Amino acid sequence: MRDQLLKRMTIEVRSFAVCEVRRGWPLETPPLGSVSLHYVLRGKGSLRDSSNQSLPLAPGSLVICPPNQRLTVSETVGDSFQLPHCEPASGTLEWLSSQRDDRLPGVLILCGMLDVVTPELGGSPFDRLQAPVRIASANAAISPLFEALFEELTTQALGCQAMIDALMKQCLVLLLRELQASSVHPAWLLALEDPALGAAVSAMTEDLGRRIGIEELAALSHMSRTTFIARFKRAYGLPPQRFLAEQRLRQGRDLLVATSLSVKQVALRCAYRSRSQFSAAFKSRFGRDPEHYRRDPRGDSR
């Protein structure tokens, strides 16, 4: 069943950048709104996340980061350098340099921002990841894939986007294998271990405007209410209703940015009874009310 889940996993590569970071000139990103991968092509350095956890970087290192992380990449310790536009447009490769002085030692990193969805999981296998995870260069199969990705991005040949998506899916499957084998953060991979919950998650996420109760969800999973709640929380880290609320708020966030629907219309599409109820929940989750978020979504930090 896990193979079927991964087979149906879809990947949309939002953007790629090559980040060149010189000694004494760290590169600091704004919060990244999606799962991000960082592969070290050359040089050595460190990556620090929003909680100040620091991971070493060396050629062949691969780091996967959960969404909404503010990252600082350094060749060595120095003053932060704020890069105002760290998210290039989809389908392009942008070269980002903290300092162009070639006399300074540097670290060169291929960075990608991805939207990963597995329908039965109601999102991505990486949604429960809480902190960046680093894989060293031990897996010989990963390195050629990223070298091929880099080649596709730089040449932009016919079928480039299809090839990039296919290569990235291979990279993610290899990454999941590596993490399972090494038992790194096993809790966030449990969703792949309990696919019996897939029917319930699909029912919850296919129509987020529909009201659905725990009893119906438990029946879809062929479990008692108590067993369903316990297994769901173990696999997803949240009780079913909190998980559903999170999915609805994410959809509301996307609708605010991508459509001209009024806040009340967005609220109704996300199963909220009123605009005020939606606004309160949205502000609690994202730190700003819907109107302010719509005006400036780039300030999203969660």
UniProtKB/TrEMBL annotation:
It holds the Pfam family Cupin_6. Keywords: Cytoplasm, DNA-binding, Transcription, Transcription regulation. Residues 198-296 form the HTH araC/xylS-type domain. The keyword Transcription regulation applies. This is AraC family transcriptional regulator. The keyword Cytoplasm applies. InterPro entries: AraC_lig, AraC_XylS_family_regulators, Homeodomain-like_sf, HTH-like, HTH_AraC.
